[in-house]
Design goal:
globular, 438 residues, 2 domains, 0% strand
Length: 438
């Protein structure tokens, strides 16, 4: 009972923290968008896609490896070997973080020249490279606290990080000129890197305090190198593939808009309006249900283990009905009040048409979110990952061939095809697993 209570408390903390952090991030993102304009939003979004790819290389699988091994060792009360696993994971994190930094340093000029059309210098990418080892270490220590069921410490670190980030951003915005796109990117990246380093230092302090309270004696000291490699390599490969395709997908949009006839700065501006401003607004309903839908994974895993097939079918039906009603209601609101939403959030009507056009995607996004998490709970993680990769490939092909002929219409079509395919594939997989076989 005590274990169940602890699980529910930690789950609640993670859920509430996720909702609060996403809400703060959304509000902060709107503030930044209003300060810097659509062209800078587009440029920064592309820089961030490189950032995300670099983080993927630096961290992939280490968080999962740490959670898995530490949970196993602590369940046996073998605290010393659990801490040894953390130490080994941190060593891997430093190596991967430094490797990712070196790769980014070496290819920064190529990325700026070929992917960003020299609109900024390599300085923002150099700043990103400095923060990668710290991000990798934070990922491992986050995994440790998840494993020992102390989610509140992760919440403390996240709040600390975003507070530092917001404060630094506001200070830099007042200190640097925002007339230059490069200055804007430097301000935002520097604030992010400082917050990541500060967060990492806090993680280390929290870990040291927690570590000092443990009884560190064991009969046999174990080496976890092979086990960590076994866990991380498959995750690393699949994560890098997905992140690489996602990054390529983002960069292809402004490049193909130029092929359509837009000047590069206008292409970045339109990209910023759609992907950096309107689309995040459309993502809000999906963001709201994400924290709750993640809880479906252990719930359905438990139902599957107990062979409770009838309950699985009943819950699936209820979830899809409730989600559909929720989504359709919000679609109507978003479409009807798109002008008011754009004026309230961005102080102009530039994004209102995009919000109206993209609103129907809310239904497919939310249903896909629910379907994906149910499938993960039913041990269909590989299928979910496979459909995501196929979706990225299809989207890239559509963007590559359609944008040069129909411009922004190609982006809209690609977004619709992507979301409809993702949901359809997940639902068909769920139908085969649940409704047909059960």
């Amino acid at each position: 009972m005590k274990r169940t209570k602890k699980f529910l408390i930690n789950g609640s903390i993670l859920t509430i923290t996720n909702i609060i952090m996403r809400s703060i991030g959304m509000v902060f993102g709107i503030y930044v968008s209003n300060k810097i304009g659509s062209e800078a939003v587009g440029t920064f979004d592309l820089v961030m896609s490189v950032y995300m790819l670099a983080i993927t290389i630096a961290t992939s699988g280490l968080n999962i490896a740490c959670i898995s091994i530490v949970s196993e060792q602590f369940a046996k009360k073998d605290f010393l070997n659990g801490l040894t696993a953390v130490k080994t994971c941190i060593t891997f994190a430093i190596l991967l973080g430094l490797s990712s930094s070196i790769i980014l340093f070496l290819f920064s000029d190529f990325i700026i020249k070929n992917w960003l059309n020299n609109i900024i210098s390599s300085i923002p990418l150099y700043l990103i490279a400095l923060g990668l080892p710290f991000i990798a270490i934070s990922s491992v220590l986050n995994g440790y606290f998840v494993a020992v069921r102390k989610a509140y410490k992760g919440a403390i670190s996240q709040f600390f990080e975003i507070t530092i980030k917001i404060i630094c951003t506001i200070i830099f915005f007042n200190f640097f000129s925002l007339k230059n796109v490069e200055n804007i990117c430097i301000c935002l990246i520097l604030a992010d890197v400082i917050s990541e380093i500060a967060s990492c230092l806090l993680w280390i302090i929290l870990y040291k305090i927690d570590k000092s309270k443990l009884w560190q004696r064991t009969k046999n000291k174990i080496s976890f190198t092979k086990k960590i490699i076994k866990i991380t390599v498959p995750v690393f490969i699949t994560s890098c593939l997905r992140s690489g395709l996602s990054t390529f997908k983002k960069f292809i949009i402004p490049i193909k808009l130029v092929a359509y006839g837009f000047p590069y700065t206008i292409a970045l501006s339109e990209y910023g309006k759609i992907i950096g401003m309107a689309f995040p607004i459309i993502m809000i309903p999906n963001m709201c249900i994400s924290s709750f839908s993640n809880l479906l994974v252990p719930e359905f895993a438990s139902l599957l283990a107990n062979g409770n097939k009838k309950r699985i079918i009943n819950i699936c039906n209820k979830l899809f009905k409730i989600t559909s009603f929720f989504s359709i209601t919000l679609i109507i609101i978003f479409m009807h009040y798109s002008n008011e939403i754009s004026l309230t959030l961005f102080h102009n009507l530039e994004c209102s048409n995009y919000i109206r056009i993209l609103s129907p995607l809310i239904l497919f996004m939310c249903l896909d979110n629910i379907a994906d998490n149910i499938l993960k709970g039913l041990d269909k993680q590989f299928e979910v990952m496979l459909y995501n990769v196929i979706d990225l490939i299809i989207t890239i092909i559509i963007l590559y061939f359609l944008i040069p002929f129909i411009g922004i219409g190609g982006i809209i079509i690609a977004l619709y095809v992507s979301e409809i395919f993702n949901f359809s594939a997940s639902y068909l997989e769920l139908y085969k697993k649940v409704f047909k076989n059960f």
